């Protein structure tokens, strides 16, 4: 059933009139984070440009000069596969997921998609160093060492995932209840 529930329709355990006009919820599963304000990043230096002019959707846009614009309320799933979700991965995963969405939409080509994987590694290394600098000396040194090693296995894992599992199909729209 889709659309509003007729006024006075009985719902299990709900008195008549309590949910008049109830709408079916349409949603997509699989998100972990959501932006509370817009975010932008220049991705041209990573070799990411639109193939046929600027493009995107209501939440993600790539300008002709390589500026990635991600609008408020954009939702993304964070780290995929074997990668661990922590604060160092939030921003890199945001940029990577937004760029991969542009690839799914046909805004960027396969070379741009591969460049997004490499950019993910550089962003992860950078953000891990920023977080490491917040700690005392010994943990800071360990985290800085990890900042060098972690992207070495994350980027190939993401590339492997994209080669065999990522596609250009959208998540299906689900309904509830």
Helix content: 25-40%
Main structural class = alpha+beta
Tally of alpha and pi helices: 3
The total count of strands amounts to 8
Provide the fold topology.
Blueprint: E1 25-27, E2 33-34, E3 39-42, E4 55-56, E5 60-62, E6 67-70, E7 75-76, H1 87-104, H2 110-132, H3 137-164, E8 174-176
Helix pairs in contact: 1-2, 2-3
Characterization of the model:
With about 180 residues, the chain is α+β, with helices and mostly antiparallel strands. It is built from three helices and eight strands. It has a four-stranded antiparallel sheet, covered by helices on one side. A hairpin with a 4-residue loop joins strand 5 and strand 6 (about 65-70). The longest helix is centred in the C-terminal third of the chain and has 28 residues, at about 135-165. It is globular, with a radius of gyration of 20 Å.
Brief overview, please?
This protein is of the alpha+beta class and 177 residues long. Helices cover 39% and strands 13% of the residues.
Essential attributes:
single chain; 177 residues; alpha+beta; four-stranded antiparallel beta sheet; two-stranded antiparallel ribbon; 3 helices; 8 strands; 39% helix; globular; disordered N terminus
